[in-house]
Amino acid sequence: MSIKFVKMLGKKILKYALVISVSFIAAYTLFLAYNANRLPDLKPWHQRDLMDDTLTYPVYSDFSAYLRAEKNYLDKVYNEVVVPETKLFNRYAKNNPSSPYFNGQNLNASFQLEAQGQRFRGGMLLIHGLTDSPYHILSTAKLFAQNGYYVIGLRLPGHGTVPGALKHISWTDWYQAVKFAASYVLEEIEKRGGGDFYAGGFSTGGALILHYTLQGLLNNTHRVPDKLLFLSPAIGVMPAAKIANLHRLLSWIPGFEKLAWLDIQPEYDPFKYNSMPYNAGYQIYALTGENRELVENLHENPSLLAQMPDMFAFQSLVDATVISKELGLLFSKIASDNSRILLFGVNHHYDTIISEEIARFDVETISLENLKNKILFLSNEVSTPPTTFTQTDRAFIADYGSGQKTFLDTNWPENVFALSHVAIPIAPNDSVYGKESVLGGLNIKGEYDVLDSGINFMRLRYNPFWGTVEKYITDWFELQ
């Protein structure tokens, strides 16, 4: 084969690769344009980029000083982004049912809970999820505080303000904030004479806590948490998020701003954005990619792997936000023998309208090494024919490590067929998302293509098995 032929072949391959790349970018741009064209118009809270949310970079005398600075920041945002008070269900309208202000306090803010009880036992750092706020981890925080732990629930940069704040944020900003908050938890533990250091996260918060732990182990940069708690953790997300930021080729041009948005929705939820820019999805994809590399590095280092903290994760089998299988892969590679996953199955009373693959899921079919014996599976037995909810429909937990099967006092609610991603950390009596609340208890019917956010109203917002979650957390973390 001559050198001339090789050069000519190389040029042809390069040419075809270039044509394919340009064609792909053009096709993706057309997709973005189509998607943007069907979206509603941008509102002020989508369009404004907001002042820099860099509150976790300065040095404060203590975390209370930070909370005061954050309060001023949030108040400024909500005073500048405002809609008429007559507008129903809008988080930016003052004196509105959807306002995040309760008794003058914006509950999107970070919080600290003092340790209760006669003995100080340690500190807990909790991080919320993407587009969420610290409100989503409040029930978990209270559980630890009531049992002797000082708790910080941190608001991640770009959250709890306006969805437009996520257009240019980076996951490294979130990670810097995690390190910032962890330092105050560790400072409190040292000040009180020592104690346990726990960390946990919901969704993206779980990915950030995992990153914090892996960095500490592999690089010896900071104290590693003694135990980890994961609630619907974002261990893996859809691969399509890899190209999410291609919109930047055009979205900077006036008139093309909507290209930057995956979804534009009414903002009626006080503690979670309904709208989402593509950049937010790309950042969690980038973070999980970084974590995947760190997990492989830890997996290949037996001495450091032996120091990996015990983990307890709670995950819905049908989570539509993250890839549940990725959690299993994580546990199979780096989880200790004491680590556990409580996997919520589906309500088999609805098997006739649930996809066959989901309805027939069996933990016994899991082939990943060292995983099956770490799984606790919540399911239920259904009477035949399943015409009514009877005692035989009781929910139970199958422990695949011990082989035990424990029936629960709580059953599946009649109108619930599965747990959603967002439901896991929310108690049924929650005033905002609970069973009797406006958002959690909403049951409305009509016709297709009428509601702006119709599909969101189908999503379960609370966990009917929160009492079970509390019990497992209490026992596993030895809170009592």
Shape: globular
Estimated radius of gyration: 24 Å
Q: Main beta sheet, described? A: 10 strands, mixed
**Helix content class:** 25-40%
Can you count the helices?
11
> How much of the residues is beta strand, in percent?
5-15%
The CATH topology of the largest domain comes to Rossmann fold
Strand order of the largest sheet: 3-5-4-6-7-10-11-12-13-14
Distance between the termini: 76 Å
Q: CATH top level of the largest domain?
A: Alpha Beta
Structural class: alpha/beta
Regarding quaternary structure, how should these chains be classified? Answer: single chain
Number of strands: 14
Domain AB hydrolase-1: 125-263
GO molecular function: hydrolase activity
Keywords: Hydrolase, Membrane, Transmembrane, Transmembrane helix
Protein name: Alpha/beta fold hydrolase
Question: What does the secondary structure layout of this molecule look like, with pairings?
Answer:
Elements: H1 3-38, H2 44-47, H3 63-80, E1 101-102, E2 105-106, E3 111-113, E4 122-127, H4 138-145, E5 149-154, H5 171-191, E6 196-202, H6 204-219, E7 227-231, E8 261-263, E9 276-277, H7 278-299, H8 302-305, E10 310-316, H9 324-334, E11 340-344, H10 356-359, E12 375-380, E13 395-399, E14 405-407, H11 466-476
Parallel strand pairs: 4-5, 4-6, 6-7, 7-10, 10-11, 11-12
Antiparallel strand pairs: 1-2, 3-5, 8-9, 12-13, 13-14
Helix pairs in contact: 5-6, 6-7
Keywords: Hydrolase, Membrane, Transmembrane, Transmembrane helix
Protein name: Alpha/beta fold hydrolase
Domain AB hydrolase-1: 125-263
